[in-house]
Amino acid sequence: MKKLFTAVSSGQRRLLVFVLDLLLIAGAFGLSFLLRFDFRIPAEFVPLFKQGVLVALLVKPLVFVVSGMYRSLWKYASLQDGIEIVKVVTASSFAAGFILIYLRHVAPYPRSIFILDWVLLLGLIIASRLVWRVYRETVILPQLQNASGLKTLIVGAGETGSLLLKEIRRQSDSVFSVVGFVDDDPRLSGMKLHGVPVLGSTDQLADLIDLHGIEDVIIAIPSATGTTIRDIIKSCEHLKVRFKTLPAIQDIIEGKVSVSQIRDVEIDDLLGRAPVVLDEAAIQSYLTGKRVLITGAAGSIGSEICRQVVCFAPQKLILLDSAETPLYQIEKELAEQYPTVRIVPILADIRQEQRLDFVFETFMPEVVFHAAAYKHVPMVEYNPVEAVTNNIIGTRLLAERAHLHRVANFVMISTDKAVNPTNIMGASKRAAELFVQGLARLSSTNFTTVRFGNVLGSNGSVIPLFQEQIKNGGPVTVTHPEVIRYFMTIPEASQLVLQAGCIGNGGEIFVLDMGEPVRIVELAEELIRLSGFVPYEEIDIVFTGLRPGEKLFEELLIAGEGIKPTRHAKIRVLDGVAVDLEATKARIDQLSEKVTQSDFVGLMEGLKNLVPEFQPAYDDTHQSIPVLRRLRPDLVV
Fold it and tell me: If you average pLDDT over residues 51-77, what whole number do you get?
């Protein structure tokens, strides 16, 4: 049967259905005559019967074909398909009846024959489709199924779970063999969904996995929060089972993905970040049809901002980055997906004055998103000169040109590490914030700063490091058992950056809603479980100590910065702190001199003068020696 089913082409199957319908049309008409005359057709009605069968076989199939009934996929037949059958059968019966009445107006047909014919044909056509679907799903599909598939439990016996089971059964090469459902609705316990039993609740999940030898668990609850998913996974922490989930329900509804596109549960799912709702009209007002420049366009945050901006159809998108290969990749990606948008890749460094002048004079950007920055805390501790020249001086050069060329909107990406910084990276970003705030007070450009915490999957995120360590068999290294951080996803952060760009009036610092802080050690444990291992048993976790400049927790506010709501629920605005622009410029100039002289100690002092709240890490003896001297004594005279 399997060979026969796979050998018959789609066109051949439609021809077979058409021939079957011809038989059903003739059979329904003949049976209607037999029923009307108690299975004894009078001799005088035989010519009417023959003529009626001929008309029915000529007219009704023609209506069936013209209506497109044979273009439907009956293996996926639904209620809507049944309604279409009623419409087509009714139309064909009216057409055939009208012709017969016209031809035989002298010797009319008994009216009951037309009603009987319509009822019988409708029932036979629907029954033929229903019988085929039942036969396919109960006989053919089980033969096509991969009997050696992974034993699987589906969490959620609702509509999504039902659709998922159907999709799995329709795939002849599916790797899943569904053993049962798990659902917390007590009314479903012991019931069957498409012949598959509901075995119990999520509280019994661990026992069910052990009892049935389950290898995969698919979470089919689109409304499940991060906490729910985390609890489900944690309940099976000592079992070697893989957890999978479905795409976002919004993507399924919009047709971007299918229910069958099952994927591994990722750390993003455990955070349970709610989707961002954007004020698209406001964003369009300052992006659509505009010339937009994005610095750091090839980085993790910058590239996602590019993907978000291009959706709003800018007139021109200028991508500026100093990394050649990543810049080529993001330009190629955007050009392929949005061929109507002019994409301009600029290989340049924001520290190159003349190059920036060329970019602004040539392309005349109207909106600038400044995402270019050095942000790896330990790397910047080793290389403070680069942090100062890129994060501070580069930002100054870029912001000044935005001011001189009357750019409408300038949005700078900052970090929570700029709050009461203990490392050079945070101090350099805070200095950039101060300069932009000061410049905003005298500029027609709408300068705004967006401050947020760690971003999952970004360059320098702990997630890729943990995944690589797990892949290599461990151990997973965590700096300290009490370290906590705020996290959000790259798309979420980028979307909120776009939203913040049209909220401010200039000079504000916006803080994104980072949700609840997460302990890094718990993040590591969850990643190990998601990889199918048991934490501390199969993959160990070791603590290495805080790295230079690291804090146990990050902050989002500096003393004196009050926080207020904005019109967007996930964005807050801070009360501006008065900044003396001329004094800030003078301190940056002094800092530049220390950089030129490679005076590292002077550089640290200059940073503290520029950012008074900067408290750099010191060595264990608490002497006033910068951390750089302890790390790299060969660099310090």
Answer: 76
Upper half-sphere CA count for residue 243 (Cβ side, 13 Å): 28
Other Cβ atoms less than 10 A from the Cβ of 108: the count is: 10
Q: How confident is the model at residue 322 (pLDDT cuts 50, 70, 90)?
A: very high
Buried b (16+ CB within 10 A) or exposed e, 277-289: eeeeebbeebbee
Amino acid at 266: E
3-state secondary structure 268-283: HHHHCCCCCCCCHHHH
Beta pairing partners, 519: 484
Q: What phi-psi label fits residue 549: left (phi over 0), alpha (psi between -120 and 50 degrees) or beta?
A: left
Contacts of 147 (CB under 8 A, 6+ apart): 177
pLDDT band at 1 (very low <50, low <70, confident <90, very high): very low
- Write a three-state SS string for 584-623: HHHHHHHHHHHHHCCCHHHHHHHHHHHCCCCCCCECCCCC
Nearest to 28 by CA among 146, 134, 95, 116: 116
214: its two tokens: 């389950």
Distances (CA, A) of 63 to 23, 28, 67, 86, 120: 16, 16, 6, 13, 17
Residues 611 and 437 sit within 8 Å (Cβ to Cβ): no
Contact assessment for residue 199 and residue 180, using Cβ atoms and an 8 Å cutoff = yes
Q: Give residue 137's pLDDT.
A: 61
Cite the active site residues.
417
Q: Which is nearest to 385 in space by CA: 143, 599, 117?
A: 599
User: Greater confidence, 635 or 286?
Assistant: 286
User: What average pLDDT does this structure show over 445-471?
Assistant: 77
pLDDT of res. 622: 35
Tokens of 325: 């290969």
**What pLDDT, in 10s, does the model give residues 578-634?**
788 888 899 998 888 888 887 888 888 888 888 888 887 654 333 334 444 554 454
Give the phi and the psi of residue 623 in degrees, each rounded to 5.
-80, 160
Distance from chain centroid for Cα 615: 39
284 half-sphere exposure, CB direction, 13 A CA radius: 7
Q: What are phi and psi of 614, to 5 degrees?
A: -70, 120
Has residue 343 got a pLDDT over 90? yes
Count of CB atoms within 10 A of residue 130's CB? 13
Picking from 451, 491, 286, the residue whose alpha carbon sits closest to that of residue 368 is 286
Taking the chain, what is the end-to-end CA distance rounded to the nearest angstrom?
A: 84
